[in-house]
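Input (structure):
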């Protein structure tokens, strides 16, 4: 059951708080999500354990955004 023990991995495409990006770094307390405009969003690790979020497959994820 990897989803319970490892809900996110480096390079996973996720949507957090309405922002699409990729997991760039995971520490013991925080996760850095590199969002579409290259900013880094720092999110507490507990968010990914306690809250709902979208996680797209690493192999097939295609990010679509407004231009």
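Output (sequence):
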């Amino acid at each position: 059951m990897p989803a319970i023990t490892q809900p996110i991995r480096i390079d996973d495409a996720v949507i957090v708080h309405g922002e699409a990006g990729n997991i760039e770094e995971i520490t013991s307390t925080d996760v850095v999500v590199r969002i579409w405009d290259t900013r880094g969003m720092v999110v507490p690790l507990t968010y990914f354990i306690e809250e709902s979020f979208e996680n797209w497959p690493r192999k097939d994820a295609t990010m679509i955004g407004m231009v």
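Notes: The chain is about 15% helix and 40% strand. The helical segments are 2-5, 45-50.
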